[in-house]
Amino acid sequence: MPSPVQVAELLVVAMAGLAVVWTREPVRQTVVVGFFGLQLAVLFFTFQAPDVALSALAVSSVALPLMLLLALARMRRGRR
Amino acid sequence: MTPRQRLLAFLLGGMGLAGLLAWGMAGLPGFGSHRAAYGQLVTRLSVPLRNTTDVVTAVNLDFRGFDTIGEEFILFCSITATAVLLRRQTREIVGAPRDQRPGRRSPGRDDGVLVLGTALGALVVCFGLYVVGHGQLTPGGGFQGGAILAGGVALLYLASGLRAVERAAPEWLLEIGEAVGAGSFVAVGLASLAAGAAFLQNLLPLGTPGTITAGGALGLINGAVGLEVAAGTSLVVYLFLVQLLRIEAAGGG
Predict the structure, then answer these.
(1) What confidence tens digit (pLDDT) does each residue in A12-44 have?
(2) What does DSSP assign to residue A60?
């Protein structure tokens, strides 16, 4: 059986995933997607996969939001 | 099709899918029960065969290192493609960084941001190097550490602006770093071919388990991957920043 921590983290990830979809404003969505990535990393860690957790941490909570923000900023500048 | 019919079609399809999913889930092995022989075998053999305590690194870079070379070049190609897309177009000019033009006070000039960003940046770089160097001992390795190192470049920009990034990690250095990193991985493999063994066969002394010398060629490969990922990811971040701050359409814009 999964431990209570694992069940709790699964629920948090599910809610964070919904939050990403329900956030419609791109800049806010980028922040939320970073939080979702952070929760994924915690999820992997609670399931005893620290290697994957580190990758998820670096990619989905740092690199991905960073690229999205930079692209959004560039688009916003181009529109002005 | 009326909305009513569409809803009916969706409900029928959805129920079918839910049924199939439930059927499939019922046949899954119990939570935490592990039947695959390969996983058990590799966990048990990683220390006796390679003196490597981090099994994931041993699998990725040694037992199935050839796969990882493929993945390495997926990353390499996508970074190259991104760099091509982000290059200066013929109708664009490269100007001075917007964040450091006279008359513009950038957020980076704030003392608190400068101090915190610099201190955190130094910490992040140290941690990244640690993660790259200890891949064979503890969770982590070249990929994770490399991405953390690239985070250091982003922090440097936040703290001190684009010019500081260009001084610390100029574009040519990042390009060379990425190419040398990707090439070194293949070079390690070719070196074992040249020594008369199989491609990527681990020929270096395996060291003592639990120390930084453990794993033989794993340390070298981790360093190569770390260099490639750190330089490549920093390059993409840098090129995005140049797009944002320097490049503009010729004739204003």
Answers:
(1) 999 999 999 999 999 999 999 999 999 999 999
(2) I
Q: How many domains does chain A have?
A: 1
Look up residue B42 and give its two tokens.
Answer: 């590799």
Model pTM greater than 0.80? yes
- Separation in Å, CA B229 to CA A31, A58, A60, B73: 24, 11, 15, 11
Best B60, B61, B233 residue to mutate vs chain A (most A CBs within 10 Å): B233
Instruction: Determine the structural domain holding residue B106 and report its residue range.
Output: 37-249
CA B190 to chain centre: 23
The contacts of residue B65 (CB under 8 Å, 6+ apart) are B189, B200, B221
Give a yes or no: residue B6 inside a domain: no
User: Is B69 part of any domain?
Assistant: yes
Number of domains into which chain B is organized:
1
A51, A53, A59 member nearest B147 (Cβ): A59
Closest CA to B116 of B124, B104, B127: B124
Residue type at B199?
F
Examine residue B22 and state whether it is found in any structural domain, yes or no. no
Residue B125 lies in a domain: yes
Question: Residue A63: which of B141, B233, B241 has the nearest Cβ?
Answer: B233
Domain that holds residue A23: 4-79
Q: Is the ipTM of this complex over 0.90?
A: no
Strands B92-94 and B247-249: antiparallel
The whole-angstrom distance between residue A18's C-alpha and the CA centroid of its chain comes to 11
**Nearest-CA distance A20 → chain B (Å):** 23
Residues with Cβ within 8 Å of A1's Cβ and at least 6 positions away in sequence, in order, are: B31, B32
